[in-house]
Amino acid sequence: MSWFLMGVAVLFFLLAGLWAIANADPEKLARIAKWVFVTLLVLLVLTLVVRGGFHLVWLLMFGLLPWIGRLRNIFKGMKGPSAGQFAEVKSDYLHMRLDQVQGEMDGYVLKGAFEGRYLNQMDLADCMALRREIDGDARSVQLLESYLDKTHGPDWRDGFDSSDRHAGQAAGAMSRQEAFKILGLSEGAGEEEIRKAHRELMKQMHPDRGGSGYLAAKINEAKDVLLGR
Asked: What CDD domains does the annotation carry (predicted)?
């Protein structure tokens, strides 16, 4: 009976561990895995030193050298896409992010009744309510409508009162800092990096390919700002 209970306990903790890993934040999981690996490696080295196995320590170090690059790539992959693989646009109400690898768009509500919510966690009715709430902010309206066009197609407009729907006048001139964020680049990126990021984003966001006309215009504007046009 004791072996049976022990087996049930081990199975329970194993399943709980797998569930925790599956639902953990990838970046935190990668950080934990890296520290566990380093800790185990240090303990192994200390054990070998205490037992007088200095030659084994050197063999271990030489044996690990070819794996250092691979392990670094594994830990990097566990974190998911890096900051440079996201294009970001921000308004008073919304912080939008486009995954340049997957082509997926999401946004975070910065203030108002839906503050702290992600758009992909909101149903269409909530998005419509948010659309009405931000009506006075033209930039936020354009961002939200671009998101809805991409995720729900143009049909969402049929259920929305046309008298409530207008983009308004464009916001002020784009800054270089904002342009770098839109293209998903770090400040100081060179001309080649700017052109490459612009090309990749336009492949996904061009209106002819089902993308957002507004975001495509912002991407073009960002390139022009950074290249001094």
From this structure: DnaJ
Instruction: Give the architecture (CATH level 2) of 83-226.
Output: Orthogonal Bundle (1.10)
Distance CA 191, CA 10 (A): 56
CB-based contact 212:150 (threshold 8 Å): yes
Dump strand ranges (E) for the chain: 86-90, 94-99, 105-109
The tens digit of pLDDT for each residue in 134-189 reads 888 888 888 898 888 888 877 777 766 544 444 444 445 788 888 888 888 888 88
Q: Residue 227 has which token pair?
A: 């290249």
26-50 and 54-78 helices, crossing angle to 10°: 180
The domain spans of the chain are 2-78, 83-226
Q: Is the dihedral of CA 155, 156, 160, 162 positive or negative?
A: negative
Residue 42 has pLDDT above 80, yes or no: no
- pLDDT band at 110, cuts 50/70/90? very high
> How far, in whole angstroms, is CA 110 from its chain's centroid?
17
The runs of H, that is alpha helices, within 79-123 are none
Q: Are 198 and 179 in contact (CB under 8 A)?
A: no
Q: What is the Cα–Cα distance from 118 to 95, expressed in whole angstroms?
A: 9
